[in-house]
Amino acid sequence: MTQKVGIILINYKDYAERFLVDCRDSIRELEYPRSSFTVYIVDNATTPETEKYLKEQWPEAVIIPNVENAGWGGGNNIGIKRAFADGCDDVVLTNFDTYVGKNWLSELVFAAYSDKKIGIVQSKLFLHPPRENGEFFINSLGNQFHYLGFGFSAGGNMRDGGSIKEVTEITYASGASMYIKGAVMSELGLFEENFFMYHDDLEYCLKARQAEWRIVLAPRSIMYHKHEFMRSNKHLFYMERNRFLVLLYFYRIPTLVLIAPMFLIMELGQWLFALKNGWLGTRIKVYAYFFNVEHLRAAWKRRTELQAQRKLKRDREFVESFADTIQFQEIGNPLLRYIGNPLMHAYWQVAKRLIFW
Fold first, then answer.
1. Residues 6 or more apart from 276 whose CB is under 8 A from it?
2. Which of 167, 141, 137, 165 shows the shortest CA–CA distance to 154?
3. Strand, helix or coil at 268?
4. What pLDDT, on a 0 to 100 scale, did the predictor assign at position 335?
5. Alpha carbon of 284 to those of 105, 107, 287: distances in Å?
6. How sure is the predictor about 319, in pLDDT bands with cuts at 50, 70 and 90?
7. pLDDT tens readout for residues 211-238
8. pLDDT at 332 over 70
9. pTM of whole model > 0.90?
10. How many CB atoms are located within 10 Å of the residue 204 CB?
11. Between 20 and 30 A from 264 (CA), which of 114, 144, 270, 344?
């Protein structure tokens, strides 16, 4: 099956100048009919210089200048709307800091249409550069969602044992290579622009799961990711604020009550960690956001809308694949490993058995 696919990329300032060439060259080498895909580049916070650079470097791409910085979700929404207006059947979201194998797109399409209930597909992501021996380690075999709202990559920084050979169910897909059927977007709509950065892909996939769409890994669709772990006050604010929003949006009230004791213990640890590392002000801003009546009212309104749209009514089925330990490959914290994870695991083993709603 050949679908007409819109490949969506977002630029911000010098991002494309740092990474465009490898990404562009690999997409030009795709073994997929050239007439059946179009590259759309949304230039967030555009300037005459960035627009000129993009048009010169990738003349066959559709460049969409955007005066404002709309963030990840907002930028993708601009590209998605243009792609569907141009007659694309589906879209795939990716980043400039990647390059892909020749079968990247064809394998995504194959996986997406191997089952009518599959709605979102992720590639197998490898970390670039390779190790000294030339071996590429895993970046993501699909993403995992912890029941307290944390998202992280499955298999990160591990060797590729090749154990996953067939299309496989995952909890949610990485936005670095996220194929979305047009039927899914018609049903669910666009991305949550308020998220701006972090957990946008998680929020959309949880929404898809509650609409009873399947999310899978296409192991023969290969991507290499020049992943850079970034940690600043701005990144931490959106990561934590959006984690809270995800919990509020998607759990039923009894589930929120059930996880509350473990959530409060984790929050105490987070406050102590923030105090130690100089991020106390950022955590205060996160909490201040939810003490703003307008923000809280908007979040609750969105929660009400999402809960009303659910097809998967019971949280018991919704939480089946959720993780009970946190595996952040970039952060090796012995307190998390030897105290936090065992405690969260034990708590969830009991709590999830109590969920009958």
1. none
2. 141
3. helix
4. 81
5. 43, 45, 5
6. very high
7. 999 999 999 999 999 987 777 899 999 9
8. no
9. yes
10. 28
11. 144
Give the contacts of 322 (CB within 8 A, at least 6 positions apart): 144, 145, 146, 147, 171, 348
The token pair at 354 is 């109590």
Hey, what are 263's tokens? 């959530």
* CA gap 179, 200 in Å, rounded: 14
Helices (H), 29-103: 48-57, 71-85
CA angle, 288 then 207 then 325, to 5°? 70
**Radius of gyration in angstroms for the set of CA atoms belonging to the chain, rounded to a whole number:** 20
Q: Which two tokens stand for residue 307?
A: 């809960």
CB burial class (10 A; 0-12, 13-18, 19+) of residue 292? exposed
CA angle, 62 then 66 then 67, to 5°: 150
- Report yes or no: 354 and 347 within 8 Å, Cβ to Cβ: no
What CATH superfamily classification does 5-225 receive? Spore Coat Polysaccharide Biosynthesis Protein SpsA; Chain A (3.90.550.10)
Residue type, 14: D
Show me where the domains of the chain are located.
5-225, 234-354
Helices 280-291 and 233-250: angle between axes, nearest 10 degrees: 40
